[in-house]
């Protein structure tokens, strides 16, 4: 199998998601308000893709997509301040309105692992955690019933669906594998953790850090970093990683500075491999060895490259030799060597989806391409 499968599907692609068995893909573009669902989408020839459905309902471009693999439902949010849950019934996708009560664009959305709730972040500085109300046939934000409330600085209980601590737009959200914790990243440079577990009498299981003893949920990490672009939990639920516009990747208390443009999306391929993509259109690999995360370079699948890494990787290795104990890289020159794309994307990467753990991921970008990466072969070439 080839290292990558590249397909030009649109002028730009803002986000994408896959169904449970990875046979269908949902795509949103910057120049349309609709959502397009295709099958036969692993072919590099777009004319071989089959358009199954076009979902129309949003009035402005779609900013987030997520496909619930358990109940086969699609979640979408948009700049029109709305979100919809799309249910497949009698051969058609039917929308159900979500009551968000926000005045500005919805920026990101994510299903909980059990598919019974989802989170939506907005430029209104509000985080909405929604569940289904069967009586009203609507998805709504509960108030103090199923979500443990945060507390504000005065100790008063706050709206369970609204962040009183975030001072900027919420750019990204991510659930842990148990659905008990939710991370959010913000324009104000903070990454915070919110408790969303349904039964407060039960202890938090598999928590990646000692938060069980803290009464203050909504605990903020790294509030002095740059704009938080993406957050990811490792598959074993022991590590939280997030990237910012300072080109840093944070693993809670540990930070790696990367010689590249900032990363807009990150995803764990496994417990020891983190993938990152961003403004320069390249896919980067960070690897955990001997208990320490390290920057391993750019994935380069161009012809004539046998190592699987970019030609500037050796230079970056020399830069890493000056790494501080905080994981930062002391750069003495400019970053021009990292600005050009050496991979199949020719513009910024706007999404990363893990298709198969340890084996495959897909990316979408502003160049309108969907790229499927055979990471099993690529990592083997990289010696990982």
TrEMBL record:
Main location, first listed in the record: cytoplasm
Q: What SUPFAM superfamilies has UniProt attached to this entry?
A: WD40 repeat-like
* WD repeat start-end pairs: 55-96, 342-376
Per the record, its GO cellular-component terms are: Arp2/3 protein complex
Q: Which Pfam families match?
A: WD40
Q: Does the keyword Cytoplasm apply?
A: yes
Q: What is this protein called?
A: Arp2/3 complex 41 kDa subunit
> Which compartment or compartments is the protein found in?
Cytoplasm, Cytoskeleton
Task: Supply the SMART domains for this chain.
Answer: WD40
GO MF, one term, reads: actin filament binding
Q: Name one GO biological process term.
A: Arp2/3 complex-mediated actin nucleation
Q: Region Disordered: list its residue ranges.
A: 145-164, 324-345
At the highest ranks, the source species' classification is: Eukaryota, Sar, Stramenopiles, Bigyra, Opalozoa
Instruction: Supply the PANTHER family for this chain.
Output: ACTIN-RELATED PROTEIN 2/3 COMPLEX SUBUNIT 1, ACTIN-RELATED PROTEIN 2_3 COMPLEX SUBUNIT
Q: Which UniProt keywords apply?
A: Actin-binding, Cytoplasm, Cytoskeleton, Repeat, WD repeat
């Amino acid at each position: 199998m080839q290292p990558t499968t590249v397909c030009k599907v649109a002028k730009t692609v803002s986000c994408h998601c896959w169904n449970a068995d990875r046979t269908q893909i949902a795509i949103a573009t910057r120049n349309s308000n609709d959502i397009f669902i295709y099958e036969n989408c692993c072919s590099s020839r777009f004319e071989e893709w089959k358009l199954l459905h076009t979902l129309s309902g949003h009035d402005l471009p779609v900013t987030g997509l997520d496909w619930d693999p358990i109940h086969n439902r699609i979640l979408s949010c948009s700049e029109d301040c709305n979100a919809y849950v799309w249910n497949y019934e009698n051969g058609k996708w039917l929308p159900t309105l979500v009551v968000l009560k926000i005045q500005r664009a919805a920026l990101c959305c994510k299903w909980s692992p059990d598919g019974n709730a989802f989170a939506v972040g907005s430029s209104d500085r509000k985080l909405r955690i929604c569940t289904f109300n069967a009586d009203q046939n609507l998805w709504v934000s509960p108030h103090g019933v199923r979500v443990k409330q945060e507390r504000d600085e005065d100790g008063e209980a706050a709206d369970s669906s609204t962040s009183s601590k975030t001072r900027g737009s919420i750019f990204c959200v991510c659930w842990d594998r148990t659905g008990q914790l939710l991370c959010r990243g913000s324009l104000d440079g903070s990454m915070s953790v919110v408790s969303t577990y349904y039964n407060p009498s039960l202890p938090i299981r598999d928590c990646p850090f000692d938060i069980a003893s803290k009464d203050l949920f909504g605990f903020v990490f790294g509030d002095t970093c740059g704009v938080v672009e993406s957050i990811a939990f490792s598959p074993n639920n022991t590590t939280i990683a997030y990237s910012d516009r300072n080109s840093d990747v944070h693993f809670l208390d540990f930070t790696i500075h990367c010689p590249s443009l900032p990363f807009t999306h990150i995803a764990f391929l496994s417990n020891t491999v983190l993938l990152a993509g961003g403004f320069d259109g390249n896919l980067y690999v960070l690897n955990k060895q001997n208990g320490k995360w390290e920057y391993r370079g750019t994935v380069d699948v161009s012809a004539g490259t046998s190592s699987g890494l970019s030609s500037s990787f050796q230079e970056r290795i020399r830069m890493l030799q000056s790494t501080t104990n905080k994981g930062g890289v002391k750069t003495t020159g400019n970053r021009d060597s990292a600005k050009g794309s050496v991979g199949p994307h020719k513009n910024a990467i706007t999404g990363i989806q893990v298709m198969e753990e340890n084996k495959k991921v897909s990316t979408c970008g502003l160049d309108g391409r969907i790229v499927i990466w055979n990471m099993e072969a690529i990592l083997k070439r990289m010696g990982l």
